Amino acid sequence: MVSLKAAGENAARLGLRILAGEKAEQIGVQQISENMALFDWRQLRRWGISEASLPPGSVVRFKEPTFLDLYRWHIAGIISLCIIETLLLVRLFLQMFKRRRAEAELRESEARFRLMADAAPVLIWASGQTRVYILQ
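The chain above was modelled as a monomer; its predicted structure follows.
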């Protein structure tokens, strides 16, 4: 099949040469561009012909885009969002684990202090710089 696009480009080049001042007699007869292999994707699919079996340089027209072609950026965005949410959940669970561990250590420390305070007959301690507590 002759490419009308290639024929139009060739005619435009000739027209530009003439407009530049070159005489038409000097240009001579131009060769027609080679034929190109042009195929309809729908018919290739209908007859079960793969694109790999076409001659090199073939042009396939009317090819329908795949799901991935249509929604590539949407899919990438959703996957990115899922990864970010997963990382946030992991961080939240780590914080919960650290908080529970700190609360357990605090309860243990308070229990040791109560045990010490109950065992001592008289206890004086300072909390900060301004208050002094005396227990009897």
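The mean pLDDT is 85.
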